[in-house]
Design a protein that fits this description.
By secondary structure, the protein is mostly helical. Helix content is 66%, strand content 0%. The chain has helices at residues 3-11, 18-31, 41-49, 52-61, 63-70, 78-94, 105-113, 118-134, 137-147, 154-159, 174-194, 200-208, 213-225, 227-230, 241-249, 253-271, 279-283. The N and C termini lie far apart (88 Å). The model is unreliable at 276-285 (pLDDT under 50).
């Protein structure tokens, strides 16, 4: 029995192309003369490391391992690498992406070399799904505006661990990306409901305060409906956009009091026939601060 026959059961799992497989079989036929030799993954890895040409074949197939090795980090065993590939592809399918989406060997190699855990990929996939599959143009626009993203591949921004970094160059985790996506959804509601362009800090503050996109939709609709109340009449102080947001969302007690005081003042003027006695003005006397 030739060494290549013994290798078939192991090497076939590595999914090398036919040319690579033939080269590896030929190599081991010259290295292992005893047909009873048991070729474990560790044995194969040792022999591979002794021949530059064969090492190149394995580095091409297991590119993530080469990146780890070049960075001085531990490599995965061949079987662990293949298992990770299968898990990543399965997780992308479960997230709703079709076969062929960010699941090539090169794509997976980036995830492996980036030491991306399975949980982190699942988080990244959820965030990417909002942008790529739901494809709400307002959310995409807000994501680009808030975080200064270009028109390149947004999906890769979420899934490639080498692409997503903060302003200081720190790598963003899957949870970071989920928060950014949620902030973009909130920013989209601010734009749509009230014509307000939030900063990234404002959108993230609302998100971390526990408000969802649906919560934001109602709150910003309230803000949009009360612009007559917020616009100052003669002798009134302006209620800033920041106060409008903080008072309506209940995250700024002083702003909430200011809005309530403005409402009471306008209501009193309306009831006594003052300058605010218009139907439109009366309709702006909403519920914030009552």
């Amino acid at each position: 029995m030739a060494a290549s026959d013994l290798l078939k059961g192991v090497i076939s799992k590595f999914r090398l192309n036919p040319t690579q497989t033939a080269a590896v079989f030929a190599f081991f036929d010259t290295k292992v003369s005893d047909p009873t030799t048991i070729l474990t993954e560790e044995t194969i890895s040792y022999y591979v490391s002794q021949d530059p040409a064969i090492q190149t074949i394995f580095d091409t197939r297991f590119a993530g391992n080469k990146e780890l090795r070049d960075a001085g980090k531990p490599e995965l065993s061949y079987s662990s690498y293949i298992t990770r590939e299968q898990e990543f592809k399965s997780d992308l399918r479960d997230a709703g992406f079709p076969p062929g989406f960010y699941d090539t060997e090169a794509d997976v190699a980036k995830l492996i070399s980036g030491e991306t855990s399975r949980q982190e990929l699942q988080d990244r996939a959820k965030a990417a799904y909002v942008v790529v599959k739901q494809a709400d143009p307002v959310i995409v626009s807000e994501l680009k505006r808030l975080y200064s993203l270009g028109d390149g591949d947004l999906a890769a921004y979420f899934l490639d661990p080498t692409r997503a970094v903060d302003a200081f160059g720190k790598r963003l985790t899957g949870q970071d990306l989920l928060r950014r996506t949620a902030a973009a959804q909130i920013g989209a509601q601010a734009q749509t409901q009230a014509g307000i362009g939030l900063s990234a800090a404002q959108a993230e503050s609302i998100q971390t305060s526990g408000f969802s996109a649906s919560d934001a939709q109602q709150k910003f609709a309230d803000i949009g409906a009360q612009q007559e109340l917020f616009n100052p009449l003669q002798g009134e102080q302006a209620i800033t956009q920041e106060q409008q947001i903080g008072g309506t969302f209940g995250t700024n007690a002083e702003a909430r009091k200011a809005i309530a005081a403005r409402r009471r003042s306008r209501q009193a003027a309306f009831e006594t026939g003052g300058g605010f006695a218009t139907t439109q003005g009366a309709s702006a006397l909403g519920t914030v601060g009552q």
